[in-house]
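Could someone model zinc ion with this protein?
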Amino acid sequence: MKKVRIKNSGEEIPVGKIVCVGRNYAAHAAELGNEIPAKPVLFLKPASALIFSGENIIHPDFSQNMHHEAELVLLVGRDLKNAGRAEAEKAIYGFGVGLDMTLRDIQDELKKNGHPWTIAKCFDTSAAVSELILSDNHNLDMNEELSLSVNGITKQKEKLNMMLFPPAQLIEYISSIMTLERGDLIYTGTPAGVGRVSRGDKITAQLGGLVSLECGVI
Ligand code: ZN
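Reply:
Sure, complex below.
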């Protein structure tokens, strides 16, 4: 079972499910030719897909176009069902920065056929996450900047306050559909600037100087 680590602490928390949000930044929805959604777009990743900073992303042979997506990741600290906004806010035990690796060519094909995105989003090593910072130690004010570079060149850079649906609203919505449990992770969507990575590339993602993540592609 995969466990996330809390920064500056020996605490490790077993990961349950990974709930991901699509199209949560208007400029990213536009760059892929998608409409801005009226409600959050949700999909899942298996916890077995998770890797950590210093580990490699394994490029599947069946894709020619794997994309990086840098995202704010939330760690759920308590069980929740039909949460109100305040309860949702309190359930954010910690946060970090993550990568939602996506096989764009496969996803485009799946979308065209009306099929689920599973193959494009759930392959092994498709989810990376940094150490997590406890909400008690840093209050996210959404002015933090999310950024990603490939081989030292900045590709994504955006303030969290450009999200269409902010963290507590996402948790409120998700918990109206499925029970959230302690140890679940929520990937909150990526800003504009997604693009292709190749074997040999080094990806670095950062959240406002608070926490960072580095993964190679092999
Ligand atoms: Zn994503």
